[in-house]
């Protein structure tokens, strides 16, 4: 039977000699815990990216890369168990990535103001 781990239990496996990652979401069948310690040296994307996420929720990064079906298949070899966390806890872990949207909104607003100012200047000069 597969185990169920809490976020705190996963967080304890946060180094090169003992590296767990949480990958998965509602769409891919739920958040699951993987022991990638033995995979660090073999990962085509290198060990650094995995170590940076050691003991953490790595799903957003895993999905952003657009891993192949083969990579998804490989995941199964490293399965430790399922994650015992509420939807709110997972959302909180995703939060840092979401603040990025606020920044880009600001960027668009500033760029828009700049275009309006330059446009206004030319209209004024004409
Ligand atoms: C156990 C988890 C993981 C497995 C089994 C895995 C497997 C793979 C495989 C097989 C590839 C080759 C391309 C492909 O088939 O898609 C790959 C590439 C890559 N992976 Fe992962 N990966 C894992 C987790 C992650 C995570 C968490 C990141 C976070 C950033 C990551 C970043 C990358 C990058 C950047 C590449 C591209 C390498 C390149 O093409 O230069 N991987 N991974």
From TrEMBL:
Superkingdom field: Eukaryota
SMART domains named among the record's database cross-references: Cyt-b5
Keyword entries, A-Z: Heme, Iron, Membrane, Metal-binding, Transmembrane, Transmembrane helix
Annotated InterPro entries: Cyt_B5-like_heme/steroid-bd, Cyt_B5-like_heme/steroid_sf, Cyt_B5_heme-BS, Cytochrome_b5
Domain Cytochrome b5 heme-binding, first and last residues per copy: 2-84
GO cellular component, one term: membrane
Molecular-function GO terms, alphabetical: heme binding; metal ion binding
Listed PANTHER family: CYTOCHROME B5 (PTHR19359)
Protein's name in the database: Cytochrome b5 heme-binding domain-containing protein
């Amino acid at each position: 039977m597969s185990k169920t781990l809490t976020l705190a239990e996963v967080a304890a496996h946060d180094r090169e000699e003992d590296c767990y990652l949480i990958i998965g979401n509602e769409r891919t069948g739920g958040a699951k815990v993987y022991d990638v310690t033995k995979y660090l040296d073999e990962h085509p994307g290198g060990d650094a990216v995995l170590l940076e996420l050691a003991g953490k929720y790595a799903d957003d990064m895993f999905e952003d890369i657009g891993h192949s079906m083969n990579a998804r298949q490989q995941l199964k070899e490293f399965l430790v168990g399922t994650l015992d966390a509420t939807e709110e806890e997972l959302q909180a872990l995703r939060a840092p990535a979401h603040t990025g949207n606020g920044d880009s909104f600001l960027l668009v607003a500033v760029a828009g103001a700049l275009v309006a100012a330059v446009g206004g200047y030319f209209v004024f000069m004409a």
